[in-house]
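Hi support team,

I submitted a single chain yesterday and got back a structure, but I'm not sure I'm reading the C-alpha coordinate output correctly. Could someone confirm the output below corresponds to the sequence I sent? I've pasted both exactly as they appear in my results page.

Thanks,
R.
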Amino acid sequence: MPAVLLTGYDFGYTWPWTHGHLVVAIACGALAWLLRKRLRRAVSAVLVLCSIWALAGFVIVQFVFGYNRPMALPAERFMAQGRGKVLDVGCGGGRTTVMMGLARPGVRITALDNFSADYIKNNGPELLMSNAKAAGAESRVEVVSADMRRMPFEAGEFDGVVSTYAIDHLNRQGIVEALGEVSRVLKPGGEFLLVVFRKDAWLTVVYGPMLMHQRSVSDSFWGDMLSKAALAVTEQGTLPGSVYYLCKRQ
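Hi R., thanks for writing in. Yes, this is the structure output for that exact sequence:
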Protein backbone atom coordinates (compact mmCIF):
# COMPACT_ATOMS: atom_id res chain seq x y z
CA MET A 1 0.00 0.00 0.00
CA PRO A 2 1.45 3.43 -0.91
CA ALA A 3 2.95 5.23 2.05
CA VAL A 4 0.73 8.26 1.46
CA LEU A 5 -2.35 6.16 2.24
CA LEU A 6 -0.86 5.04 5.53
CA THR A 7 0.73 8.25 6.80
CA GLY A 8 -0.70 11.11 4.75
CA TYR A 9 2.80 11.84 3.46
CA ASP A 10 4.69 10.91 0.32
CA PHE A 11 8.31 12.03 0.38
CA GLY A 12 8.92 10.57 -3.06
CA TYR A 13 11.42 7.83 -2.29
CA THR A 14 11.27 5.42 -5.20
CA TRP A 15 10.57 1.70 -4.87
CA PRO A 16 14.23 0.56 -4.89
CA TRP A 17 14.66 2.52 -1.64
CA THR A 18 11.40 1.50 -0.01
CA HIS A 19 10.67 -1.97 -1.41
CA GLY A 20 13.82 -3.05 -3.24
CA HIS A 21 14.83 -5.46 -0.49
CA LEU A 22 11.41 -7.11 -0.54
CA VAL A 23 11.68 -7.70 -4.30
CA VAL A 24 15.11 -9.31 -3.82
CA ALA A 25 13.82 -11.44 -0.92
CA ILE A 26 10.89 -12.76 -2.95
CA ALA A 27 13.02 -13.36 -6.06
CA CYS A 28 15.77 -15.26 -4.21
CA GLY A 29 13.28 -17.26 -2.16
CA ALA A 30 11.26 -18.18 -5.25
CA LEU A 31 14.36 -19.27 -7.16
CA ALA A 32 15.56 -21.39 -4.26
CA TRP A 33 12.16 -23.11 -4.07
CA LEU A 34 11.48 -23.56 -7.79
CA LEU A 35 14.98 -24.81 -8.60
CA ARG A 36 15.61 -26.74 -5.40
CA LYS A 37 15.91 -30.06 -7.24
CA ARG A 38 18.21 -28.70 -9.95
CA LEU A 39 20.60 -26.56 -7.95
CA ARG A 40 23.45 -27.69 -5.78
CA ARG A 41 22.86 -27.37 -2.07
CA ALA A 42 25.48 -24.65 -1.79
CA VAL A 43 23.74 -22.54 -4.44
CA SER A 44 20.35 -23.07 -2.82
CA ALA A 45 21.81 -22.12 0.55
CA VAL A 46 23.22 -18.89 -0.89
CA LEU A 47 19.82 -17.99 -2.37
CA VAL A 48 18.08 -18.69 0.93
CA LEU A 49 20.62 -16.59 2.82
CA CYS A 50 20.20 -13.75 0.32
CA SER A 51 16.45 -13.95 0.79
CA ILE A 52 16.79 -13.79 4.59
CA TRP A 53 19.22 -10.86 4.37
CA ALA A 54 16.94 -8.95 1.99
CA LEU A 55 13.91 -9.57 4.20
CA ALA A 56 15.84 -8.25 7.21
CA GLY A 57 16.84 -5.21 5.16
CA PHE A 58 13.22 -4.58 4.19
CA VAL A 59 12.08 -4.70 7.82
CA ILE A 60 14.83 -2.24 8.83
CA VAL A 61 14.02 0.14 5.97
CA GLN A 62 10.30 0.11 6.80
CA PHE A 63 10.33 0.19 10.57
CA VAL A 64 13.71 1.69 11.56
CA PHE A 65 14.68 4.08 8.76
CA GLY A 66 11.10 4.83 7.64
CA TYR A 67 12.02 6.86 4.56
CA ASN A 68 8.42 7.78 3.80
CA ARG A 69 7.58 8.78 7.37
CA PRO A 70 8.42 12.12 9.02
CA MET A 71 11.63 12.16 11.02
CA ALA A 72 11.65 12.72 14.76
CA LEU A 73 13.69 15.73 15.86
CA PRO A 74 16.96 14.17 17.09
CA ALA A 75 18.13 17.12 19.22
CA GLU A 76 15.48 18.48 21.57
CA ARG A 77 17.53 21.62 22.22
CA PHE A 78 17.41 22.70 18.57
CA MET A 79 15.26 25.83 18.28
CA ALA A 80 13.81 25.03 21.70
CA GLN A 81 12.48 28.59 22.00
CA GLY A 82 9.95 27.54 19.36
CA ARG A 83 10.03 30.65 17.18
CA GLY A 84 12.13 32.31 14.52
CA LYS A 85 13.24 31.60 10.96
CA VAL A 86 14.67 28.18 10.07
CA LEU A 87 16.33 27.16 6.82
CA ASP A 88 16.10 23.53 5.66
CA VAL A 89 19.12 22.90 3.42
CA GLY A 90 18.62 20.12 0.88
CA CYS A 91 14.93 19.71 1.67
CA GLY A 92 14.03 17.19 -1.06
CA GLY A 93 10.46 15.98 -0.64
CA GLY A 94 10.12 17.76 2.68
CA ARG A 95 10.81 15.08 5.27
CA THR A 96 12.91 17.45 7.39
CA THR A 97 10.61 20.40 6.71
CA VAL A 98 7.71 18.36 8.07
CA MET A 99 9.82 17.34 11.07
CA MET A 100 10.40 20.99 11.92
CA GLY A 101 6.81 21.95 11.21
CA LEU A 102 5.53 19.34 13.63
CA ALA A 103 8.18 19.72 16.34
CA ARG A 104 8.32 23.53 16.29
CA PRO A 105 4.86 24.85 15.30
CA GLY A 106 5.94 28.45 15.95
CA VAL A 107 8.84 28.63 13.48
CA ARG A 108 8.79 29.79 9.87
CA ILE A 109 10.61 27.47 7.48
CA THR A 110 12.43 28.19 4.24
CA ALA A 111 13.03 24.97 2.32
CA LEU A 112 15.97 25.08 -0.11
CA ASP A 113 16.98 22.54 -2.75
CA ASN A 114 17.93 22.36 -6.40
CA PHE A 115 15.55 19.36 -6.65
CA SER A 116 17.97 17.32 -8.76
CA ALA A 117 17.93 14.06 -6.76
CA ASP A 118 16.70 11.33 -9.11
CA TYR A 119 15.83 8.90 -6.30
CA ILE A 120 12.89 11.14 -5.33
CA LYS A 121 9.90 10.71 -7.63
CA ASN A 122 8.27 13.96 -8.78
CA ASN A 123 10.98 15.87 -6.93
CA GLY A 124 10.10 19.54 -6.74
CA PRO A 125 8.38 22.31 -4.78
CA GLU A 126 4.92 20.82 -5.39
CA LEU A 127 5.84 17.54 -3.67
CA LEU A 128 7.31 19.37 -0.69
CA MET A 129 4.31 21.66 -0.29
CA SER A 130 1.88 18.74 -0.46
CA ASN A 131 3.70 17.20 2.51
CA ALA A 132 3.79 20.54 4.34
CA LYS A 133 0.03 20.75 3.81
CA ALA A 134 -0.43 17.23 5.22
CA ALA A 135 1.44 18.42 8.32
CA GLY A 136 -0.71 21.54 8.60
CA ALA A 137 2.37 23.72 8.12
CA GLU A 138 1.96 25.02 4.57
CA SER A 139 1.27 28.60 5.73
CA ARG A 140 4.67 28.66 7.49
CA VAL A 141 6.72 27.17 4.64
CA GLU A 142 8.24 28.80 1.58
CA VAL A 143 10.31 26.99 -1.04
CA VAL A 144 13.46 28.34 -2.68
CA SER A 145 15.05 26.52 -5.61
CA ALA A 146 18.81 27.09 -5.38
CA ASP A 147 22.21 25.47 -4.87
CA MET A 148 23.17 24.95 -1.22
CA ARG A 149 26.72 26.01 -2.11
CA ARG A 150 25.50 29.43 -3.28
CA MET A 151 22.47 30.40 -1.21
CA PRO A 152 20.46 33.48 -2.27
CA PHE A 153 20.08 34.89 1.24
CA GLU A 154 21.47 37.80 3.20
CA ALA A 155 24.10 37.25 5.89
CA GLY A 156 22.59 36.47 9.28
CA GLU A 157 19.10 35.98 7.90
CA PHE A 158 18.17 32.83 9.85
CA ASP A 159 17.88 31.90 13.52
CA GLY A 160 18.44 28.24 12.74
CA VAL A 161 19.54 25.96 9.91
CA VAL A 162 18.90 22.24 9.59
CA SER A 163 20.21 19.77 7.02
CA THR A 164 19.64 16.02 6.99
CA TYR A 165 21.25 13.54 4.60
CA ALA A 166 22.05 16.22 2.04
CA ILE A 167 25.39 17.95 2.63
CA ASP A 168 27.14 14.56 2.89
CA HIS A 169 26.19 13.88 -0.75
CA LEU A 170 28.68 16.55 -1.82
CA ASN A 171 32.39 16.13 -2.43
CA ARG A 172 34.87 17.64 0.01
CA GLN A 173 34.99 21.05 -1.67
CA GLY A 174 31.22 21.11 -1.92
CA ILE A 175 30.94 20.38 1.80
CA VAL A 176 33.31 23.25 2.59
CA GLU A 177 31.25 25.60 0.43
CA ALA A 178 27.88 24.46 1.80
CA LEU A 179 28.97 24.72 5.44
CA GLY A 180 30.46 28.13 4.70
CA GLU A 181 27.09 29.25 3.38
CA VAL A 182 25.31 27.81 6.42
CA SER A 183 27.62 29.84 8.64
CA ARG A 184 27.10 32.98 6.56
CA VAL A 185 23.29 32.93 6.60
CA LEU A 186 23.07 32.11 10.33
CA LYS A 187 22.81 34.88 12.88
CA PRO A 188 25.67 35.01 15.42
CA GLY A 189 24.70 32.52 18.11
CA GLY A 190 22.27 30.83 15.72
CA GLU A 191 21.84 27.06 15.75
CA PHE A 192 22.71 24.47 13.12
CA LEU A 193 21.53 20.85 13.18
CA LEU A 194 23.39 18.54 10.79
CA VAL A 195 22.43 14.88 10.27
CA VAL A 196 24.62 12.69 8.04
CA PHE A 197 24.93 9.01 7.24
CA ARG A 198 27.14 6.90 9.48
CA LYS A 199 28.26 3.37 8.69
CA ASP A 200 27.02 1.28 11.61
CA ALA A 201 25.45 -2.17 12.06
CA TRP A 202 22.06 -0.99 10.78
CA LEU A 203 23.43 0.51 7.58
CA THR A 204 25.79 -2.43 7.03
CA VAL A 205 22.97 -4.96 7.26
CA VAL A 206 20.77 -3.01 4.88
CA TYR A 207 23.28 -1.94 2.22
CA GLY A 208 26.44 -3.96 2.80
CA PRO A 209 28.91 -3.45 -0.07
CA MET A 210 26.63 -0.84 -1.66
CA LEU A 211 27.53 1.71 1.02
CA MET A 212 28.59 4.94 -0.62
CA HIS A 213 28.98 7.24 2.39
CA GLN A 214 32.30 6.03 3.80
CA ARG A 215 33.28 9.59 4.71
CA SER A 216 30.34 9.91 7.11
CA VAL A 217 31.83 7.45 9.62
CA SER A 218 34.59 9.89 10.55
CA ASP A 219 33.62 12.13 13.46
CA SER A 220 36.92 13.96 13.11
CA PHE A 221 36.13 14.82 9.49
CA TRP A 222 32.84 16.48 10.34
CA GLY A 223 34.24 18.06 13.48
CA ASP A 224 37.02 19.67 11.45
CA MET A 225 34.66 20.83 8.69
CA LEU A 226 32.25 22.39 11.17
CA SER A 227 35.00 24.07 13.16
CA LYS A 228 36.49 25.63 10.03
CA ALA A 229 33.06 27.08 9.23
CA ALA A 230 32.84 28.71 12.70
CA LEU A 231 30.20 26.21 13.79
CA ALA A 232 30.95 24.94 17.30
CA VAL A 233 29.52 21.51 18.15
CA THR A 234 27.50 21.66 21.38
CA GLU A 235 25.85 18.24 21.17
CA GLN A 236 26.53 15.06 19.23
CA GLY A 237 24.56 11.84 19.08
CA THR A 238 23.77 8.80 16.98
CA LEU A 239 20.67 7.48 15.25
CA PRO A 240 20.32 4.21 13.33
CA GLY A 241 22.63 4.66 10.35
CA SER A 242 23.30 8.29 11.20
CA VAL A 243 25.07 10.79 13.41
CA TYR A 244 23.87 14.28 14.27
CA TYR A 245 25.72 17.45 15.30
CA LEU A 246 24.03 20.36 17.02
CA CYS A 247 26.14 23.48 16.55
CA LYS A 248 26.19 27.16 17.46
CA ARG A 249 27.37 29.90 15.10
CA GLN A 250 30.43 31.53 16.67
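A quick pointer for reading it: Strands lie at 84-89, 107-113, 141-145, 158-164, 186-197, 231-239, 242-249. Let us know if anything else looks off.

Best,
Support desk
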